[in-house]
Amino acid sequence: MTDAQQTAAADPGLAPSEPSGPAPVPLLAPREGVPPVVADEESLAGVVAAFAAGSGPVAVDAERASGYRYGQRAYLVQLRRAGAGTALIDPVACPDLGALGGELAVTEWVLHAATQDLPCLRDIGMVPTRLFDTELAGRLAGFARVGLGVMVETVLGYSLEKGHSAVDWSSRPLPEPWLRYAALDVELLVDLRDALEEELTRQGKFDWALEEFAAIAAAPPPPPRKDPWRRTSGVHKVRRRRQLAIVRELWTARDQVAQRRDLSPGKVLSDAAIIAAAQAAPVDARALAGLHGFGHRMGRRQLQHWQTAVDRARALPEAELPQPGQQVSGPPPPRSWPEKDPAAAARLTAARAAVTAHAEELNLPQENLLAPDVVRRLCWEPPADREPAAIAGALRALGAREWQIARTSDSLAQALAAEA
């Protein structure tokens, strides 16, 4: 047990904290060395056989090239399992890992921040049915910081190098220091999982964690985002519908170029440039060239490409211009509640206070006790019956887990009844 765990065990009301004892031991290399990258079907078949014959949970991680390439595909997959060691797989050379995913489907997968990696793993045929998320486990256990490096230091007493987290993983060949870093990311993941299970069990929270992990594993892929252009940074500065149309046309044109060239959209054209063009609505490429983000380094052909997008927006009839603000389902932004529905605003204030107070008692973040969106939807359209059983049913319909319902329905019923 670590110093932090011993301190927490002495007083269950205390949160786990970073140890104040000896400095963490640097973890400089995987215990069996850095394995060669698997980049052909024969080598992949060997990995499948080795991991199928292994035992216990399998540590899984993936490296993407966010900020460099289009989309969120995996450019390296790392796995480690007792009896199989560590494997580094190149999913560009081996794009179908369905056989490996199939062999490991019923095995517990250990990931850190699972929701970040599951989409790109799913794309290459790797879909777990059981998982353990060490980041989420850390949140439930009450750790103040839950990054992988900090968790390994706090719980296990080792320090990991994190200097290569933002490199371009689409580069080939991958440098040896990057591969060593990648292998170390799964080196102690199962050890961390075991220590966190012990801590969660001590706090009486392990069953809560299992419900959370099951919900992540069972969640379907998210649907495509509606009007993704509305997430352009700075779009809140654009008020007029014609200007919004320019944002939409430039965003769409940029996305098409980025996808064709397999580049991060920001490397093709910055969000700031899109907003500048929308606000100025230039009449020709010469005027466009004078705006931020469209400087002298941009060629005439490129400038004309973007100006053509601006011209499309300028030519749209009024009926085809986008409306300001995104049409969303569910309640409006809470800042507008006092004016739209003062009673709902009062309910939300009382409910938030109840959830916050109980989360502090349980030593976990309030958003993990109950998702803020669930609280908002409950308060905007509460059931007519404000008894705990009715509140529990409403929470269940909104997707809350059973452990969350058991610990919030009574206090929420009291809060909503007081504001009825």
UniProtKB/TrEMBL annotation:
CDD domains listed in its UniProt record: RNaseD_exo (cd06142)
HRDC domain location: 240-320
Highest taxon listed in the record's lineage: Bacteria
Residues covered by region (Disordered): 1-29, 319-342
PROSITE patterns given in the database record: HRDC
Protein name: HRDC domain-containing protein
Organism: Streptomyces johnsoniae
